[in-house]
Design a protein that fits this description.
Elements: E1 8-14, E2 17-23, E3 33-44, E4 47-56, E5 60-64, E6 75-84, E7 87-91, E8 95-96, E9 100-101, E10 104-107, E11 110-114, E12 120-126, E13 140-150, E14 161-163, E15 167-170, E16 181-189, E17 199-207, H1 213-216, E18 223-228, E19 236-238, E20 242-244, E21 250-252, E22 257-263, E23 270-277, E24 286-293
Length: 294
């Protein structure tokens, strides 16, 4: 039995244009061998569509991402068969590469976060080189947006997540570890003080004003962000001020003046109340008459 060919797809720039290269390792001791390389892409789940085939003596094969036969967003395979020249009936079993996804990826691909103010880093990366033929300064700008998908029973409301940036730039660089260009953005859940259950939002990226035909018709996959609802504390001051604290303690306050009702130690948040005399001559009673919040 002949050793495995182990075809692998890697992205490469050839004369400023994006190509995919299928490399395989032929057996070193064989007499002259030819290779049949079949390129295909996933047209629908579980179905492949052939896009190119060639027979070569080389231990590699190239195909261009031209935006027509091969587009961004495609998952691409190469299938390699080896056979001796002159006797194509004596051939190896066809071997498949792993599927190569050409386009923009988000890492992680989905996110579950809580309404706790924490920032979560999302990496936006391109699995193919950034190329801008004929341009001096080269970059791909991705416009980022969020959308609240709500719960199935509700009408979507304002976004439940906020981003640290509205756009990111992908700049050309060497490809390594499955990434040819990457940028980072942080995602934070909106603390809305509403008992609105777990909600789902969508983080989307769209290439902004792309000059290159490859990027023009491309819409990257969205990231699903589930926001876990956290219970909200409440405190009260009402009528002739009865005060109930966040942890349920009850107080009376009959003083006249302006007081600090609540203050956060971790963020710029304060509530002041103003209490005026409202008891007349018979009793000393103060009532809430004003509030200021930051």
């Amino acid at each position: 039995a002949s050793p495995a060919l182990q075809p692998v797809i890697t992205p490469e720039l050839v004369q400023g244009r994006v190509h995919l290269k299928c490399s395989y390792s032929p057996a070193p001791t064989e007499p002259p061998v030819q290779f049949r390389v079949l390129w295909s892409r996933l047209s629908s789940p579980g179905k492949r569509e052939q896009i190119h085939q060639e027979t070569t003596l080389q231990a590699f094969s190239y195909v261009e991402m031209d935006g027509a036969n091969l587009r961004l967003g495609d998952t691409v395979f190469c299938t390699v068969t080896a056979f001796r020249r002159g006797s194509p009936e004596q051939q190896s079993l066809p071997e498949d590469s792993k599927g190569f996804y050409a386009g923009i990826k988000f890492l992680p691909e989905s996110l579950e976060i809580a309404e706790d103010g924490k920032e979560h880093v999302v990496t936006v990366l391109s699995t193919v080189p950034i190329a801008c033929p004929g341009q001096d300064f080269c970059k791909i700008t991705l416009q980022l947006s969020t959308e609240d998908l709500g719960k199935s029973s509700q009408v979507p409301g304002p976004p439940d997540i906020v981003l640290s940036a509205c756009q990111v730039d992908l700049l050309p660089g060497p490809c390594s570890g499955g990434s040819c260009a990457a940028a980072r953005v942080t995602v934070t859940a909106v603390t809305d003080f509403a008992q609105d259950g777990n909600r789902v939002s969508r983080l989307s990226a769209r290439p902004a004003a792309p000059g290159d035909v490859l990027w023009r018709a491309y819409t990257p996959r969205d990231v699903k962000v589930t926001v876990r609802d956290l219970p909200t504390g409440n405190c009260y001051s009402f009528t002739d001020p009865h005060i109930i604290t966040f942890d349920g303690w009850r107080y009376e306050s009959h003083k006249i003046g302006t007081f600090l009702l609540s203050s956060s130690e971790s963020r710029a948040f304060e509530v002041h109340v103003r209490q005026w005399d409202c008891g007349g001559h018979r009793s000393a009673t103060a009532c809430n008459c004003g509030v200021a919040a930051r």
